[in-house]
Amino acid sequence: MLSKQQLNSYWMPFTANRDYKEAPRLVASASGMYYRDQNGREILDGTAGLWCVPLGHSHPTVVKAVQDAVATLDYAPAFQIGHPQAFELAEQLIDYSGHKFGQVFYTNSGSEAVDTAMKMVLAYHRSRGEAQRTRFISRERAYHGVGFGGMSLGGLPANRKQFGTLLAGVDYLPHTHNLEKNAFTRGLPEYGTHLADELERLIALHDISTIAAVIVEPLAGSAGVILPSKGYLKRLRELCDKHGILLIFDEVITGFGRMGTPFASDFFGVTPDFMTTAKGLTNGVVPMGAVFSHQKIYDALMEGPAGIELFHGYTYSGHPLAVAASLASLKVFKEEKVLEHAQSMTAYWEDGLHSLKGLPHVIDLRNVGLIGAIELESMPGKVGARAMAAYKKAFAEGVLVRTTGDIIAMSPPLILEKKHVDQLFGKLHDILKHLD
Ligand SMILES: Cc1ncc(COP(=O)(O)O)c(C=O)c1O
Known about the structure:
Distance between the termini: 31 Å
Bound molecules: pyridoxal-5'-phosphate
Mean pLDDT: 98
Strand content: 15-25%
């Protein structure tokens, strides 16, 4: 039992602190598909933590690798010096990406990966004599983390409104959510490809000479699982190619198997110029992010004057513990055929989710890969209250989900079995049936 003082001392992130501290929800340990609280009560992890534990919790291979790493090389500076495993991991990550990218740059989080990609974009254009290309095109309802870069690209009003004017020079494509056309679609919807064409309008408005890059999440996760239409990302790539604009996929949640492929770019068959990643990169065990960049970006910067080519980096870039966790995670992905298993579960997952159709207040069910969302009709004047009530009830009854507004999002560890799908949707069925 935590004391009032303890509860008061911790300012919790993205949390309704006052509400939470009235009735704290705590987890004390985890393994495989389950968290446990201090009394040993099991809670099924329907969200892989925060989308970051694809291999399940406390995987012995990852745990052992981190234990060995900390006892061997606890820390190594990353500026003008390296350690061999950081290079080994970079090579393996490029391999894992199918050699569509030339380099990886290490950060500590997804937010930092986004900021890093933005800086690389600007440095790239400058190195080619196009320093006026500084404008980023993002999208409404996007989430790109909480640094001033990512926040300025973000399209969720609540994440922006407390923080002033943000970065100048960002414009936004429309989001791709449309319940009228796409509600209850299984998998990717047909409708919405034309929304990518809005890029032409923004190019006409700002002039192509000012536009540096387009950034999108292949699938918007934090906004509540917003799917693109089948052809949307291909169309966006075509338009970027046509106009010489760099394309960034923010794969912080979609990377490392969430769609049953290494990255969403593989799933969609569309290759961006950058991928920002984090979360599943280390199975969530040690904080780490990575930016994958196209060979042409590195090459352009290597042609400048001798000396440091990119004045950017973090004290903990390529931290030995994070590198060890990532190397071990890649090994598990391969040896245990995790992606094959994830693919084999998607049809059962889809059926489980869509079995909730017809329950009170359910206005949409959507899924792709091992991702699912339930959209509930909001209570008048109380957006988010209904989903939050479901979330609290689910946790009390042994299931962890996640909410954004009145959308319940699910993204389980990729190791889940049919019995876990049954448990998750069975419990949600009972809860939604009786929800006010
Ligand atoms: C698409 C996307 N980008 C960036 C981030 C930020 O990552 P982090 O919380 O590690 O900074 C997130 C986090 O959920 C994300 O979903």
